[in-house]
Design goal:
Distance between the termini: 8 Å
Shape: globular
Strand order of the largest sheet: 3-4-2-5-9
Number of strands: 10
Structural class: alpha/beta
Number of helices: 8
Radius of gyration: 17 Å
CATH topology of one domain: Rossmann fold
Helix content: 40-55%
Bound molecules: adenosine monophosphate
Largest sheet: 5 strands, parallel
CATH class of one domain: Alpha Beta
Strand content: 15-25%
Length: 222
């Protein structure tokens, strides 16, 4: 029996630092032409531009602390504007953000379709984070474990310089993992109670994880 294909187009990806949220979100965004938004990435660009909101964010990110809810929500409200389709990566990260986000979506009558929880061990997080390189120009992310690239090399996409993120240090990682466990894991429970959460094991290779997410977003409705 062949059914209709229903595309999930309001999607949230949550998971520990360096679990591949950004990579998977941009692959899914390109595959389905759904806008990808990362609060971390927006605020990194604001920091690079030394805007007031960027300088405010910098104080927290440098030490691996979460931004205050109010700051993350301001960024999201601004980004949402009239959009009705999205793949959020790294938002919501706290229960407070999740509740405010629900209100925002309810007011616009655009309920979430799914929340993917990307699961990975602490050891793998550490290894991925310490190998991560980000392009200072286009934001593309690479990993020295998977690509033959080093700090200072030219980005294969835009020739910008590859750098380590200022929060990709062992000390900042410890804070980020601890904050993830304290603040973001309860967000997963919150979405479980709403029947929206799907846990995905992301220890596998990038393309394998992508295929799982791709197939789930493009579910056949019988
Ligand atoms: P990411 O690019 O998602 O890894 O985010 C980098 C850092 O930005 C995080 O470790 C947090 O310090 C901060 N951040 C990004 N998004 C949020 C959010 N929704 N709430 C609080 N802090 C955030």
């Amino acid at each position: 029996m062949s059914g209709r294909t229903i595309l999930k187009s309001r999607v949230v990806l949550i998971g520990p630092p360096a679990c591949g949220k950004g990579t998977q979100a941009s692959l899914l965004s390109a595959a389905f032409s759904i806008p990808h938004v990362s609060t971390g990435e927006i605020l990194r660009k604001e920091r690079a531009a030394e805007s007031p909101i960027g300088l405010e964010a910098d104080r927290y990110a440098r030490e691996g602390h979460l931004f205050p809810d109010d700051l993350a929500l301001r960024v999201v409200r601004q980004w949402m504007d009239n959009r009705t389709r999205f793949i959020f990566d790294g938002f919501p990260r706290t229960i407070g953000q999740a509740i405010e986000f629900d209100k925002m979506l309810f007011e616009r009558s655009i309920p979430l379709d799914v929340v993917y929880l990307l699961e990975i061990s602490d050891e793998e997080v550490l290894a991925r984070m310490l190998g991560r390189l980000t392009c200072s120009k286009c934001g593309a992310v690479y990993n020295t474990r998977f690509h033959a690239l080093a700090m200072g090399d030219a980005c294969p996409k835009c020739q910008g310089s590859l750098v380590r993120r200022s929060d990709d240090t062992r000390e900042a990682l410890e804070h980020r993992l601890a904050e993830y466990k304290t603040f973001t894991q309860p967000v997963a429970d919150y979405y479980t109670s709403k029947g929206l959460l799907k846990a995905i094991d992301v220890e596998a290779a990038r393309d394998e994880v992508f295929q799982i997410l791709y197939a789930d977003m493009k579910e056949e409705a019988l």
